[in-house]
Amino acid sequence: MAEFTGKQKVVVVGAGPVGALAALYAAKRGDHVEVYELRDDLRDPSTTPLNFTKSINLALSERGINSMKLANCEGLLDAVLAETIPMHGRMIHSRGKGGNLCEEPQPYDAQGRYIRAVDRAGLNKRLLDQLENMPNATLKFNHKLTGADFNKNTAWFEQRKVAKTDHGQNPTDDMSVKSGPDRPKKIAVDFDFLIGADGAHSASRYHVMKYARLTYQQEYIDTLWCEFHMKPRLSDGSFAMSPNHLHIWPGGSLMFIAIPSIDGSFTCTLFAPESFFASLTASAPAEIVSSFSMNFPGVCPELISPEELQKQFTENPHLPLISIKCTPYHYKSNVVILGDAAHAMVPFYGQGMNAGLEDVRVLFDFLDSHDVYSENSKLATTREERREGALNAYTLQRTPDAAAINYLALRNYEEMRSGVKSPIYRMRKCLEESINVYFPSLGWSTQYSRVSFGNQRYSDLEKAVARQGRIILLAIGFGFGGIVGFIAFATLKRLYRAR
């Protein structure tokens, strides 16, 4: 019989949605869990709001919902879903040939399924509340990971008295806390297993790279983003537009989107090349309004006043979009990285958080299937050996899946900013949805439905969609060939008769 060494001590670095869910999964299995977060507790009313808690409202879809459901925490999913808004499709905004403002709804799914708009901070709070109720879990805020020995299973943290309040992608100098009464206290923390879920600029990943032969790729796309806020109607506090759609103003190389919030407002985001931002920044304030009027009809002054638009463009940060790929995600049996720490992606498929939450489910599926939590395992191995086997299997499966959704997210940007107006895009979407509705046994589905409304592996669905595309092209080719053949036959027949 295999050796069982009792309860594990699991250290989770990062208390965002992915880290909090990972801690819940571990705590529900009986582990002693300690969560270390660089920043202050966002549930505290005195905490300074962070840019990243207000940025792009998140789209919660099946993968994230399923992963929270399988945490088996009573009331968690109901509390999260109660603070979401269903989005049944895209609403495409444009200006018609006569100059009138036009709206075109594009449903996400032929079966009526929908994604949900969710506030990141609100979702994070619900997870932390649930975690705090676990007797075997401890939350430690204002702790910075400064070092780790993944052979001896020890991590070092700085315990800060001054909370970090800047944006992770636009950090400020914090040298002021290196000396004096607020100088951080250094502590050493031993662990059996460390889970790094501390975002794209991950300290966990940095320290893993000192031990594992980790292949790492980082790419910034030529697009910046800036957040805008669209207030509810002054007359009655209602939504200024349909709350059940993701609103898109496609502009070729530019895009403006709006996602509903439960307070009746919309969180809006401008995506554009760096040169566009530089040009507007150097221009007179009135140019910002005229540029929006030309590129995003109906936004200003109809939905956002010129004064607010100018103010928000000037004061809100213009931030980059990063794409990260790496492998392996683990070192021996001792550490694994999840979420953006392992595979940050651009936000255009709304899958960043969903993929991160799914990481947690997949990881613990492998830990369970390798008997890491079994007291009566029939495997003649130690718990550490079984955990290493689980982490190897996790990396082997999740690496191609992360690469697939990373690629699909980049491609979806092209679709959102221009493809949604393409007749070819609309024709293929209509064809695939018709096959799905009238011939369900064929298992045919659009790429979006596979990504957002199922739990099929990203790498498998990418192959399935490519196969569907080849079949459609083949069918079109045969159809075109048949038409050409018919025309040729009719032409020859007429020529023959003319003789």
Task: Please render the helix and strand layout as text.
Elements: E1 9-13, H1 17-28, E2 32-36, H2 51-54, E3 58-60, H3 62-69, H4 76-81, E4 84-87, E5 89-95, E6 101-107, E7 115-118, H5 120-132, E8 137-140, E9 143-149, E10 154-159, E11 185-190, E12 193-196, H6 203-208, E13 215-230, E14 245-251, E15 254-260, E16 266-272, H7 274-282, H8 285-295, H9 306-315, E17 319-327, E18 330-331, E19 335-337, H10 340-343, H11 352-369, H12 383-417, H13 423-438, H14 447-452, H15 458-498
Parallel strand pairs: 1-2, 1-12, 2-8, 5-14, 12-19
Antiparallel strand pairs: 3-7, 4-7, 5-6, 9-10, 10-11, 13-16, 13-17, 14-15, 15-16, 18-19
Can you offer a commentary on this structure?
By secondary structure, this protein is of the alpha/beta class. 40% of the residues lie in helices and 23% in strands. Strand 15 and strand 16 form a beta hairpin. Helix 1 packs parallel to helix 5.
State the shape.
Answer: globular
Task: Please tell me how large the radius of gyration is.
Answer: 26 Å
Roughly how much helix do the residues carry, as a percent range? 25-40%
Q: In DSSP terms, counting alpha (H) and pi (I) runs of 4 or more, how many helices?
A: 15
Given helix and strand content, the structural type is alpha/beta
What is the percentage of strand-forming residues? 15-25%
The count of DSSP E runs of length 2 or more, i.e. the number of strands, is 19
The stretches of 5 or more residues where confidence is low (pLDDT under 50) are: none
